[in-house]
Amino acid sequence: MTVAAGIMITFALVGHPLLQLLGISLHAFYIAGGILLFLIAIDMLFARPSRTRETPEEAEEGRMASDVSVFPLAIPIMSGPGSMATIVLFMSQAGTDWLKIGSVAIALAVALSCSFAIMLLSTRIMQILRTTGVAVIGRVMGVILAALATQFVINGVTAVLGLKH
């Protein structure tokens, strides 16, 4: 959990400046992040393992490693490409408004805390929800993620085209 939090905080602080350094516009990142999140949402909707999580080589390394808390749990499951893109986009939207930055930080802390609590209670949650309940929740969250991803793409495209939405 600490590693995932550290990665997310790092991306929250240096993600946007890093994009600027690399010459990547925020609009391009909106579109790319939206497409990436949409692919993850499709995997969730069809109950497929996400292709963005790990390569076969990473999976093999994870099986051989003694500590799964860093790989594959913290990276790439909890702090993977989708969450990194999301945190960079939300921090970019916050700009220099400390209230908005604080809101993003609080949302990140709440999300990580909820993830930690769910991991602690995962055995009990699985007993209650069973496989079908988990699948239903995963698909509903996939629809919500697809909508968020679509909004990211809309925001990026309308900004590039100079349209108001």
How do the strands and helices of this protein lay out in sequence?
Layout: H1 2-22, H2 26-45, H3 56-64, H4 69-78, H5 81-94, H6 98-120, H7 122-161
Descriptive overview:
The chain is mostly helical. The protein has one domain (2-161). The chain contains seven helices and no strands. The chain has helices at residues 2-22, 26-45, 56-64, 69-78, 81-94, 98-120, 122-161. Helix 1 (2-22) crosses helix 5, helix 1 runs antiparallel to helix 6 and helix 5 (81-94) packs antiparallel against helix 6 (98-120). The N and C termini lie far apart (37 Å). The model has no long low-confidence stretch (mean pLDDT 85).
Can you give keywords for this protein?
globular; 7 helices; single chain; mainly alpha; 165 residues
Short description:
The chain contains seven helices and no strands. The chain is mainly α and 165 residues long. Helix 2 crosses helix 5 (81-94) and helix 2 runs antiparallel to helix 7 (122-161).
Radius of gyration: 17 Å
Query: Could you list the spans in which at least 5 consecutive residues all have pLDDT below 50?
Result: none
Helix content: over 70%
The ordered string of helix (H) and strand (E) elements is HHHHHHH
Q: Characterize the main sheet.
A: none
Number of strands: 0
| Count of DSSP H/I helices | 7
By secondary-structure content and strand pairing, the structural class works out as mainly alpha
Mean of residue pLDDT values: 85
Q: Estimate the global geometry from the Cα principal axes.
A: globular
Strand content: under 5%
The N- to C-terminal Cα distance equals 37 Å
Count of distinct structural domains: 1
